[in-house]
Amino acid sequence: METTLQKPALIAAKSTPKANTLVYWIVTALLCLQMSFTAYAQLRLPQVAEAFTHLGFPAYFREELSWAKFLGVVLMLAPVPARLKEWAYAGFAITLASALIAHLSVGDGPEAWGWAVGTGVLWGLSYFFWRRLQATPVSA
């Protein structure tokens, strides 16, 4: 018996593995650029250090977070086992959700938390296409 349910457009769309790979790398490169920039800014820009103080975080946390972001970027771009990429994705998800919560908890407006939301969209697209690539059988 045939189902009468329709598949969602994202699932039903027939895309080639080559197109998936291209979109994955574009979105992932943008995500990694954003995470690298924020890590650099957290280490070097005094106004970002002040923002961490405003959010109530200690100075050492800013440095730990920066180095963790750099490590995550390396894992995202390097040919490492899938489990390590999963950990990088999980770490970025926790970081972005925590940034959003921290900004909202002190009453910051969209100019402060908008970057976390925008980067979260890049994260979601990167993860979606990475999982699609993982599910694509390797042709000989």
Principal-axis shape equals elongated
Give the oligomeric state of the chains in this entry, treating copies of one chain as homo and distinct chains as hetero: single chain
- Uncertain segments are none
Q: Main β-sheet: number of strands, strand sense, barrel status?
A: none
Cα separation of the termini: 34 Å
Q: In which range does the helix fraction lie? A: over 70%
Estimated structural class: mainly alpha
Strand content: under 5%
| Count of individual domains | 1
Rg, Cα atoms, Å: 18 Å
Rounded mean pLDDT is: 91
Q: Given the structure, what is the number of helices? A: 6
Would you mind describing this structure in some detail?
With 140 residues, this protein is mainly α. The protein has one domain (17-135). Helices cover 79% and strands 0% of the residues. The chain has helices at residues 9-12, 17-44, 46-55, 59-77, 82-105, 110-135. Helix 4 runs antiparallel to helix 5 (82-105). It is elongated, with a radius of gyration of 18 Å. The relative contact order is 0.14. The mean pLDDT is 91.
